[in-house]
Amino acid sequence: MAGIPSVSSDPGHPRCLDKPSIALLVLNPFWSANLVGCAMPVQFSSKLQSLLIPSTRVVVFTGAGISAESGVPTFRGQNGLWKEFRVEDLATPQAFAEHPQRVWDWYSWRRELISRIAPNLGHLAVAKFERFFSDFCVVTQNVDGLHNRAGNERILKLHGDIWEVRCVSCGLRRMDFQPVLLSLPPRCECGGMLRPGVVWFGETLPVDVFEQAVRATQSCGLFFSVGTSAQVFPASELPGVARQHGAYVVEVNIERSAAASEAHEVLLGKAGEILPALAESLQGAMSGSTPGNNV
Ligand code: APR
Q1: Helix axes 121-132, 271-287, angle to 10 degrees
Q2: 184 exposed, middle or buried (CB, 10 Å; 0-12, 13-18, 19+)?
Q3: Considering 99, 123, 147, 159, which one is annotated as catalytic?
Q4: Does residue 98 line the site of ligand 1, with CB under 6 A?
Q5: What pTM was computed for the model?
Q6: Where in the chain does DSSP place strands (E)?
Q7: Which end of the chain has fewer CB atoms surrounding its CB within 10 Å, N or C?
Q8: What angle do CA 258, 262, 266 make, to 5 degrees?
Q9: CA 189–ligand 1 middle distance (angstroms)
């Protein structure tokens, strides 16, 4: 795959993953339902149910929406961070070069907030998926580390990790889980300034991680797109890549995202309700009982 495109939310940004044309959403008449922990039964197709077997290769692609129920603000939803703050002031290399204190104050605020909260039922369900499916990985845009804390191990972090710090002088990278750093901007042992280990707008995604994510997406049989508005390139292209390579694509979101047209099935609702219901159905598959009888 030609050079890794940089992060952009600019719709005019050249799309190089040759996304196929808009596909029709396929509705299947046979629905199963699960009532586990949610107000309304979660209905999903027997096609999806039939794929909930250990041998299915699965990718779960996540965005800020999966962490919303834990109390982590999303970016573009209601009370989203980009409604209150400007990207140009806080999430670009230029902003950091010109105002490192301001950028660190903001990341420190987010670190402190995330340190006080826990993974929710949605994260825990994704951890259950990893234990169930023999070939599985999480591809996440989130930097909050909640998938790790929920127990996932096979995680590809497209946009870095807020708990990582990097030295802008010597290139040192290390994890630092202190909720509040002693001094801001923090300094490296070499004296250089440390920056948050995240990918900012205009920066390139980690090449190896992105290529692994694309390979996993191209070879999976079931692709879940959970809690993302699918507006930030190149991550936003992954649902289309999955569909183009024959995966069954399922979107889980409280509203249809920009990539909903790539989904064979859209499950509208909270990730913390829908994913546990799917996880319950996994067990059904394991225990050989007919899906839906868990109700
Ligand atoms: N369950 C499921 N989906 C939810 C929930 C929930 N409880 N709450 C919100 N959502 C959905 C919203 O409808 C929206 O589609 O989550 C999505 C969040 O979208 P964004 O805020 O745009 O976050 P994301 O898609 O992860 O952003 C991508 O943009 O700002 C950059 O680098 C940042 O990784 C981030 C990237």
Answers
A1: 30
A2: middle
A3: 159
A4: no
A5: 0.87
A6: 31-34, 42-45, 57-62, 135-140, 155-157, 160-167, 173-175, 194-198, 222-226, 248-253, 265-268
A7: C
A8: 80
A9: 36
Is residue 123 among the annotated active site residues? no
**Which tokens hold the place of 184?**
């801001």
pLDDT digits (tens, 9 = 90+) for 169-215: 999 999 999 999 989 999 999 999 999 999 999 999 999 999 999 99
Q: Output the CA 79–ligand 1 centroid distance in Å.
A: 12
User: From ligand 1's centre to the CA of 170, what distance in Å?
Assistant: 34
Ligand 1 centroid from CA 99, angstroms: 26
Q: Which atom of ligand 1 is nearest to the CA of 62?
A: 26
For the CA of 7, the nearest atom of ligand 1:
32
* Digitized pLDDT (tens) for each residue of the chain, 295 residues in all: 344 344 444 444 333 334 444 443 444 444 444 444 545 678 899 999 999 999 999 999 999 999 999 999 999 988 889 888 899 999 999 999 999 999 999 999 999 999 999 999 999 999 999 999 999 999 999 999 999 999 999 999 999 999 999 999 999 999 999 999 989 999 999 999 999 999 999 999 999 999 999 999 999 999 999 999 999 999 999 999 999 999 999 999 999 999 999 999 999 999 999 999 999 998 765 444 444 444 3
Mutate to test the pocket of ligand 1, among 162, 228, 262, 273 (most ligand atoms within 8 A of CB): 228
For ligand 1, atom 23, name the residue with the nearest CA: 64
Ligand 1 pocket, residue 63 CB under 6 Å: yes
3-state per-residue secondary structure call for 8-57 = ECCCCCCCCCCCCCCCCCCCCCCEEEECCCCCCCEEEEHHHHHHCCCCCE
pLDDT in tens, 216-248: 999 999 999 999 999 999 999 999 999 999 999
